[in-house]
Amino acid sequence: MVLRVAPSPSEIAARLPGDDLVAPADVVMDRAFDLPAAPDVVWPWLVQLGKRRAGWYLPRSVERLVPRGRRALRHLEPRWQRLTVGDVVPDWGGRDATFTVAAIESERLILFTSTRGRTDLTWCLHLTPAPGGSRLHLRLRLAPVRHRRVAEVLGGGFDLLTVAGLARGLAERVA
Fold first, then answer.
1. Quick one: DSSP state of residue 83?
2. Cβ contact 1:24 at 8 Å
3. Contact at 8 Å (CB) between 40 and 137?
4. Is this prediction's pTM over 0.90?
5. Rounded to an integer, what distance in angstroms lies between the CA atom of residue 138 and that of residue 124?
6. Whose CA is closest to 8, among 39, 31, 36, 41?
7. What are the pLDDT digits (tens) for 97-150?
8. Whole-angstrom distance, CA of residue 107 vs CA of residue 164
């Protein structure tokens, strides 16, 4: 099962859509993982991702600990398959936290933007074909960040755990 969410050096060095929207970034978090399905199979799962949508995919072993009403979907839901530039998707980053779709290219990328307090952020989900399936590269960019080291260590640790859960949960769903 997917456990490794480390990007390659070339993924870290790559320019992604949205990099210019938060530039310079005080904090950049890159994560990437392989999935056992082609991009056309993975894509609908990414489109429906989010709070008050299909949820945040976690592995079955973790979801058993989550109240039934808060678990992510384990099927594709037609009503969540439409996502366009300008759509607002609620997020778990606080009661009023949201993401706005800034760019979308079918079976390739979704770029979200948001402002949390005085910090602007972008979150890019970049999907590419890979041997045996797909590769999903996620990049989070933040600025300005008042306590950069805290964001890198604590925020980075939380991001690593949530993306590792997403990697395993998404792999279960597309397999």
1. -
2. no
3. no
4. yes
5. 6
6. 31
7. 999 999 999 999 999 999 999 999 999 999 999 999 999 999 999 999 999 999
8. 21
